[in-house]
Design a protein that fits this description.
Layout lengths: L1 H13 L5 E2 H8 L3 H13 L3 E7 L7 E6 L5 E7 L3 E8 L4 E8 L6 H19 L6 E8 L3 E2 L4 E3 L8 E3 L1 H9 L3 E5 H12 L8 E6 L3 E7 L2 E3 L29 H4 L2 H10 L12 H16 L3 H25 L3 E5 L3 H19 L9 E4 L6 H15 L11
Parallel strand pairs: 4-7, 7-11, 12-15, 15-16
Antiparallel strand pairs: 1-3, 2-3, 4-5, 5-6, 8-9, 9-10, 12-13, 13-14
Length: 400
């Protein structure tokens, strides 16, 4: 119970950027002033919070404000996307202290990719100058599906050769850090709740736009992972009955119609990407997709048509999910988001409003991430902080 109350208080302070006094904490979390005082002293002794001056108006003693200590704890986050691998070191308030981004090694050899990730993790930790004892662990955001209990990547469609790869154990052995593995879309949603500001509160979808497309789900400030940790797999929602065939046997799924690889193939067939290599590796798809978005920004009518059509199809998939879950907000982000962001934000809000079952009751806001393009890696680091410090019911269970 003591550990649970500690995380409740720490979480309340985290959610208040301006800090809270002990009196305000007692009002918010419902614990006695003595309990608040005891736990606050414990957190101060552990250097997880600091006393940040006094505030007060009117009669009475000024109140001492408690805030998170940015240097009290750190976490490393890794985002493994088929196109790009990003590594960040985050402090306790969610600020990126150290950063690395490299192209994900090609081929179908998971061992080579894992060795590269381990090297980058150790380099980022060393270059940051942060003492290893202050790094709580490493979170890894991976394409799904995953086996959450065992930290295993289970044959993701855009990472050939990754068939039941024990990523958590391999990185633990290679780095010596404690490792957490979660889905990229879930990690992005966690990042938004920790560091996204207003866009990360309440109930929302995080539409992850990477080499693949998926969604993270947050309901009433709680991240939804599903039975096996694989919630958010939306690749086989049908959005275009006359669209290209999908490997699931349907036509016009998100996977076959909306992901960057499909849009690049469409652009190439229209003669838009002549001169660029026609490769299908993640980094090659990323370069080709970036060029397609540049052409659309420059006003090329064929490129505009491809991006605008994809916005319509993505809006159809999003409407299925928002009508099912009744959320208040859709947040877009991910490594491929920026190039198409303006056209999507211009079109999707209206399309979503037209198809919303609850449109006469509440609007659905559509926004870009408040975290930035490294949302996957930042979310992976936040996974570690969440696991270490967020209030969880499991903390109340007695071990026998």
């Amino acid at each position: 119970m003591g550990d649970f109350n500690l995380t409740v208080i720490l979480d309340a302070i985290r959610r208040s950027p301006g800090g809270l006094s002990r009196v305000e904490l007692a009002q918010i979390v419902g614990l006695s002033p003595q309990t608040i005082s005891n736990i606050s002293r414990r957190l101060l002794d552990q250097h997880l919070i600091v006393e940040a001056g006094k505030e007060g108006s009117g009669p009475g003693k000024p109140r001492t404000i408690l805030r998170l200590n940015p240097k009290g704890m750190y976490a490393i986050g890794v985002h493994l996307d088929p196109a790009v691998t990003t590594v960040v070191l985050l402090d306790l308030v969610g600020t990126v202290v150290q950063h690395s981004r490299i192209s994900t090694p090609g081929g179908d050899d998971p061992a080579a990719v894992i060795a590269t990730i381990a090297t980058e993790v150790l380099r980022v930790a060393k270059d940051s100058g942060v003492h290893g004892d202050l790094i709580a662990g490493v979170g890894v955001a991976s394409p799904g599906p995953i086996d959450l209990d065992h930290g295993t990547v289970v044959d993701p469609p855009l990472l050939p050769g990754w068939d039941r790869v024990e990523l958590r154990q391999a990185l633990t052995d290679a780095t010596g850090f404690s490792i957490l593995v979660d889905k990229d879309v879930t990690s992005a949603a966690v990042a938004e709740t920790w560091a996204g500001g207003a866009s990360g509160s309440g109930s929302f979808l995080f539409m992850y736009m990477g080499t693949g497309i998926g969604c993270g789900i947050v309901l009433n400030d709680e991240v939804v992972r599903g039975t096996s940790g694989n919630a958010g797999e939306i690749g086989h929602i049908m959005v275009d009955p006359d669209g290209p065939p999908c490997d699931c046997g349907q036509r016009g799924c998100v996977k076959s119609s909306c992901i960057p690889q499909a849009l690049v193939a469409e652009a190439r067939a229209a003669g838009l990407l002549d001169g660029l290599p026609a490769g299908t590796s993640g980094p090659e798809i990323q370069r080709s997709f970036a060029r397609l978005c540049e052409l659309a920004d420059d006003g090329d009518s064929r490129a505009v048509a491809i991006i605008d059509k994809s916005a319509v199809l993505v809006a159809r998939a999003v409407s299925v999910i928002t009508n099912t879950l009744d959320v208040e907000r859709v947040v877009f982000g991910g490594p491929f988001w920026q190039g198409q962001s303006q056209r999507y934000l211009d079109r999707i809000p209206e399309l979503l409003a037209e198809s919303s079952a609850a449109r006469l009751i509440h609007p659905i806001d559509v926004v870009g991430t408040g975290v930035g393009e490294d949302v996957g890696a930042i979310g992976a680091a936040c996974l570690v902080l969440e696991h270490t410090f967020a209030p969880r019911a499991q903390r109340l269970l007695l071990e026998v």
